Amino acid sequence: MPKSRWLSALAATALMASATALATDVTEITPDDFYGASYFETALEHPKVAKQKSESRKVALVARDLGWKKTKLRAALDKMRGLEGDPLELARTAVMTGFEGSRVEGRVLDVLFNASEPKHVVVYVRWRGSRSRDAVKEASTIAHIIAEKAPFVSTLSLAAIHPKSAVDSKTSVWEAKIGRTSMERIKPARIDGYADRLYARMFEDMKTRPF
C-alpha cells in the first residue's frame, strides 16, 4: 500500500495548532475523524479554499461543504494532528501489539489498510489457521482487536490459510468480512462459548474449505 500522505499534507496547517494540544492515541480516532481530516486535506487544493487567508475560514468553508458544524471538523483535525505519526502505520502497530497474547499470536501474516475511500476504510488480515473448528473463534478475536485498536476501520476482510501452507500462500481455507458495528459487539470473554452460535452470524460472505 502507498504511504499515507498525512504527515506532509497536514504539516502546513499543523503549525497553527495549539502548542498545548495533547497527543492523540490512534485508538481514539473515529471514522468521522478520519474522514473529516481527509476531506479537509483534499479540500485545501481547491482554489476556493486555498485563497482563504486564515485556517479558521478554511475550516468553516469545508465544514459547510461537509454539512458539519465547524467545531466538529476542528475537533477532528486537532485529533489527527495530535497523532505522533502516520495514522495507518500507528494503527497497524497497535493492531499487531493487540494480537500478542491472543489466540492468534504469531500467526497473523498480513495487516493491510486501504484508505483510498476515507469514508470507508478497509483492513485486510491474513493469518495462518489452526483448525477448522476454531476459524470463527480466531476471526472473532481478530475482529475485536481491530475494533479496539483501529476504530476508524469500517470493514474487516479476513482470510485464513491452511496451517501447513507456505507463508506466502494466497489460497485461503476460510474467509469472510465483517462491519465495524458487528466488530464492536464481540466480547473476548464470550468468544469460546458463543463464537460459533452467535458471532458467526455477524460475518458476511463466509467461505470455508477443508483444513
List the helices and strands and how they pair.
Blueprint lengths: L5 H9 L16 H13 L3 H4 L4 H12 L3 H12 L5 H13 L8 E7 L6 E8 L6 H15 L3 E9 L10 E8 H6 L5 H4 L9 E5 L3
Parallel strand pairs: 2-3
Antiparallel strand pairs: 1-2, 3-4, 4-5
Helix pairs in contact: 2-4, 2-5, 4-5, 6-7
Order of helix and strand elements from N to C terminus? HHHHHHEEHEEHHE
The chain-level structural class is alpha+beta
**Poorly predicted segments:** 1-20
Q: Distance between termini?
A: 30 Å
> Main β-sheet, in a few words?
5 strands, mixed
* Range of strand content: 15-25%
* Count of DSSP strands: 5
Rounded mean pLDDT is 91
What oligomeric state best describes the polypeptide chains here? single chain
Coarse morphology:
elongated
CA-atom Rg in angstroms: 19 Å
Helix content: 40-55%
Quickly count the helices: 9
**Strand line-up of the largest beta sheet:** 1-2-3-4-5
Describe the structure.
With 211 residues, the chain is α+β, with helices and mostly antiparallel strands. It is built from 9 helices and 5 strands. The chain has helices at 6-14, 31-43, 47-50, 55-66, 70-81, 87-99, 135-149, 180-185, 191-194, and strands spanning 108-114, 121-128, 153-161, 172-179, 204-208. A 5-stranded mixed sheet has the order 1-2-3-4-5. Helix 7 links the parallel strand 2 and strand 3. The chain is elongated. The chain starts with 5 loop residues before the first helix and ends with a strand. The model is unreliable at 1-20 (pLDDT under 50).
Task: Please supply descriptive tags for the structure shown above.
single chain, 211 residues, alpha+beta, 5-stranded mixed sheet, elongated, disordered N terminus
